[in-house]
Amino acid sequence: MIKKVKKNIRIIKALAKLRFQNLMMFRLSFFGPFFVDASLFLIQIAVFEIIYQNISNIGGWEKAEMIIYIGTFSLINALNMVICFFGILKIPEKIKTGEMDLYLTQPVSPLLRFTFEQINPGSIPLIILSCCIITYGMRMIEHIITIKQVFAYMFWISIMFLLYYELEILFRSIAFYTTSILGLEQLEMVSIELCMQIPGTVFYGIFKVLFYGILPYGIIATFPVQSLINEMSPYQFIYGLIVVLVFTLITYTIWKRGIRHYDSIN
Length: 266
What we know:
- The chain crosses the membrane at residues 28-47, 67-89, 119-138, 150-167, 202-225, 237-255.
- The protein is 74% helix and 0% strand.
- By secondary structure, it is an all-alpha fold.
- It has one domain.
- The model is unreliable at 24-28 (pLDDT under 50).
């Protein structure tokens, strides 16, 4: 087990090094995304101010909590963009063209390679700016935030990043069974955009079932913020862990069966 972990770490380092070397061959490709993503983030904050400047609270959260929420979702999304998004995004294309063969014949986990072969440093500014807006929101909160709450927040950031990553793989694993997942990708995009703008505390009834269970984007930033402002109940803590565990098992099962189901077109 330890040998396998060490091997995977060496592979990740090699993939990252190769990726940076390729990016630095075209300096604009390396530095351009820094300015593009930073500009998009600032526009998002400006839109947030315009929409919420005359609203006292949303789903029971005041402006400080909402600022932290926006920053939290943006942080998780930015981490995903830096680490794995552009690699996972190519899975349907690799399946459709038969290039998946190259991944299956190599002595490296295909999913590990997809995850780390397209690391994108151009989204690093989003991580920095997200942390800045989260810090700003924390300073606006009237009560004191303890170290324990900060560590709980960091724990849930990690857990929700894993869930975000699993959902991303899950959607694209369907490409093993169908010729197009365009509709699923549109559903994913709409769900993310919606849940990036409003917290899970707003959802009730069928919408809560949808965004807390079926497509749990509603908890991705909500639970970390609730842990930070000390609003998370023991029930929510357990529920969040169960959701991540269930989607880990579902994603693993569908991915593995998809690999077995895969039939090269070459």
